[in-house]
Amino acid sequence: MKNLFFLFLFSLLSGCTQEEITDLPDETETSGETISFNGFTLKAPANWYGFRLQGIDSQVGGVTNTIDTLYFDFGWYSYDFSDLQPNLYTKTSARINGKEALIIKPNQPGKGLIGIYIRLEGDDRFNLYGVSKNEEEVLHICKSVNFL
Predict the structure, then answer these.
(1) Model confidence over 56-104: pLDDT tens digits?
(2) 114: domain CATH number?
C-alpha cells in the first residue's frame, strides 16, 4: 500500500511541470507574506514564494522556500490522505477558515507527508502538503489558508 501511495504521488507530480513565477499573472499575486491564488490565499514567511503547475482538471501549484515545498490541489479530485498508514501518521481535525479540515503529520518529523485536506461546498476539495522537518512553519502556512 505504501508503494502504491508513492507511485500515485510520483505520477501526479511527474505529470505536472513546474514554472517558477517571477512576474506573476493577475490571478497569482504576492503581497508581503500573503500569497494569492485563484480562489484562496495563504500566508507564508517572506522567503517563500508561490508557483503554479499545469493541471488537467484542477488548479495545482505550491509554495516554496527552495528548501521545503508544499503542493496544493484545488478541484474535484484532490487527494484526501485516506491511504496513509495509520501507524505512521497522526490525523487530527481542525477548523481552517471556518471549514472542517483534516491535518496529517508523520509520527517522525520529516519522514512523510504533512499537510491538510478540506472538503468544500459542492464538489470542490483542497489539499496542501509536503515533506518537512519544520512542522511548525508548515502547519502555520496550512492553517493560514483563506478561501475567497
Answers:
(1) 889 999 999 999 999 999 999 999 999 999 999 999 999 999 999 999 9
(2) 3.40.1000
Question: Count of domains in the chain?
Answer: 1
Q: What is the pLDDT of residues 70-83, one digit of tens each?
A: 999 999 999 999 99
Domain that holds residue 108: 2-147
Each residue of 52-77: b (16+ CB within 10 Å) or e?
Answer: bbeeeeebbbbbbbeebbbbbbbbee
Q: What are phi and psi of 143, to 5 degrees?
A: -75, -10
**Dist. CA 5–CA 26, nearest whole Å:** 35
Cell for 29? 499575486
pTM attached to this predicted model:
0.77
